[in-house]
Amino acid sequence: MIEVRQLTKSFGSQLILAGVDLRIDSGESAVIIGRSGGGKSVLLKHLIGLLQPEGGEVLVDGDPITHMNERQLLRVRRKFGMVFQGAALFDSMTVAENVAFGLRRHEHLTEADVAKRVAAALEMVDLPGTEKKKPAELSGGMRKRVGLARAIVYEPRIVLYDEPTTGLDPIVSDSIDHLIIRVRDQLQVTSVVVTHDMRSARRVGNHVFLLHHKKIYAHGPPEELFASQDAVVRQFIDGVADAKETEL
Amino acid sequence: MNFLGQTWVGVWLLGLGRIAVMARDAIASCLTFKASKRDLFYQIYFIGIKSQAVVLVTGAFTGMVLTAQTYFQFHKVKMDTATLGVVAVAMCDELGPVLTALMVAGRVGAAIAAEIGTMRVTEQIDALRTLATHPIDYLVVPRLLASMVALPLLTIESIALGIGAGYLVGSQLLGIDPPYLYYNMLKYTADIDVVFGLVKSFVYGGIIALVGCYKGLSCGMGAEGVGRATTEAVVYASIAILITNFFLTLFLERLYVLMS
Predict the structure, then answer these.
(1) C-alpha A85 chain-centroid distance
(2) Max Cα separation, chain B?
(3) 8 Å CB contact of B124 and A80
(4) First to last CA, chain A
(5) Which of B36, B124, B134 comes nearest A90 by C-beta?
(6) How many CA atoms lie within 13 A of A231 on its CB side?
(7) Would the CB atoms of A84 and B133 count as touching at under 8 Å?
(8) Which of A68, A90, A111, A150 to mutate to test the interface with B (most CBs of B within 10 A)?
(9) Using CA atoms, how far apart are residues B42 and B54, in angstroms rounded to an integer?
(10) Cα separation of B27 and B46, whole Å?
């Protein structure tokens, strides 16, 4: 279970989050939607302790992580896997070495067992036989799949996705959505997906949070939120620009 | 206090403090053996083996030109045969460790900052952290240890080649009597000169790796940030080596006098 209480964050003089509250239960598939540059990725990075807030608290399974030092956070992060917007694969390593990274460092397995686990993870993301390729040889969609394989290979309990479908064509985006659902259902993980892709949000989430004006403006099951008649929610879901923005 | 933080002195002190904290964390990590042996050996290969050409050329030509210049001056006072003694002491105490460190700072310090800086801007450092791996354990410690092991070895090579090249220039090109040249080199060069050189190169190895890693880990976003980090890693490491060299020379000499 992840709980965020009154989270505040700013970079320099720019306030990004101003008192965010949210709660994600174990096994839930939460989607955080909001405008580009609205602080969704910043919020996601707070959940795993990559950023330290100015105020408020983040609790993972009841443990407050905001005051932990980097070494203490490493223990908490073993519960997490994270898929980055740009995949963030280690470009000096092959696909297999990328996927095996967490296994080799934290689990005492034989090389044969590591190879088996890597092959199974790549199979799960529909990329069998790509072990020897370098990240530079992969397409954007393939890189995200490898990033997902790397995040799930050591069987974390929570998987965070930072804009998993951004920059991908609709067909690849659709396959990534299916992959997120497959990982959620097969591995029984808690998923937290940050996106501004409404189709993806509707499909993968069973609890959607709308981040607006530095706070969680609305949240609920997707069918409820997507049927909302609130002007702000509707504007975001329907993708309607303000008159001021239309002039730009 | 805020005013001080915005001046170059404040920024410099802040950087120095952060490098000190990083060094402390790296030493603590070394003591708990968190670094992987595979990464350590790769870094020793990258820093030690791949720097061979640049170090050998630097050592050889420094020894050769120093021999020629010393001979030109000593010849005036009929001290030709003492030439290699001066070259050997200078190579062991100063030129070997300092020039090797400066050359390695240019090659390795820049590579460390560029590699880690690129990892930072492409979120690979964040990815490391999400995989429950401390950047100090995985990135800093192998480079620090490898640099502190490889630089003394490179310095020995550089010193040996400089003296050897100086001997050849003195005996074959400048016509100095080889036995006297060799005898005086042994007479004026003490073991402690070699020890001083090795101690210095060990310290410079640490400086190169720490400055490179710090600049990479704290680099600004985008290509400009990586470029700036790379340049600063070389410039700051070189300046730090030259300043440290002066104080380390005084310290080691004083320590030697006290101990003997």
Answers:
(1) 8
(2) 69
(3) no
(4) 42
(5) B124
(6) 2
(7) no
(8) A90
(9) 19
(10) 21
Q: Write the DSSP symbol of residue A82.
A: E
pLDDT > 60? residue A243:
no
What's the confidence (pLDDT) of residue A126?
86
* All domains of chain A in start order, with CATH: 28-40+69-240 (3.40.50.300)
pLDDT digits (tens, 9 = 90+) for B171-213: 999 989 999 989 999 999 999 999 999 999 999 999 999 999 9
* DSSP helix/strand/coil, A158: strand
Closest-CA distance, A247 to chain B, in angstroms, reads 30
**Per-domain boundaries in chain B:** 36-259
Q: Which chain A residues are closer than 8 Å to B133 by Cβ?
A: 74, 101-102, 105
CB–CB of B122 and A48 under 8 A? no
Which residue shows structure tokens 């050329």? B57
* Residue B25 φ/ψ region, left for φ over 0, alpha for ψ in the -120 to 50 degree band, beta for the rest: alpha
Residue A33: beta bridge partners? A195, A210
Q: B123 and A45: CB-CB below 8 Å?
A: no
Cβ neighbours for A43, distance < 8 A, ≥ 6 positions apart: A4, A7, A17, A20, A32, A194, A211
The DSSP line for B137-155 is: IIIIHHHHHHHHHHHHHHH
- The strand ranges marked E within A25-64 are 29-34, 55-60, 63-64
Judge whether B130 is closer than 8 Å to chain A, CB to CB.
Answer: yes
List alpha helices for chain A, DSSP H.
40-47, 70-77, 95-106, 111-124, 140-152, 170-187, 198-204, 222-226, 231-238, 243-247
Residue B167 near residue B64, CB atoms below 8 Å: no
Token pair listed for A24: 């994600």
Backbone φ and ψ for A245, nearest 5 degrees, come out as -70, -30
Is A80 close to B130, i.e. CB distance below 8 A?
yes
Check residue A242 and give its pLDDT: 67
Cβ proximity of B85 and B184 under 8 Å: yes
B134 vs A74, A84, A150: nearest CB: A74
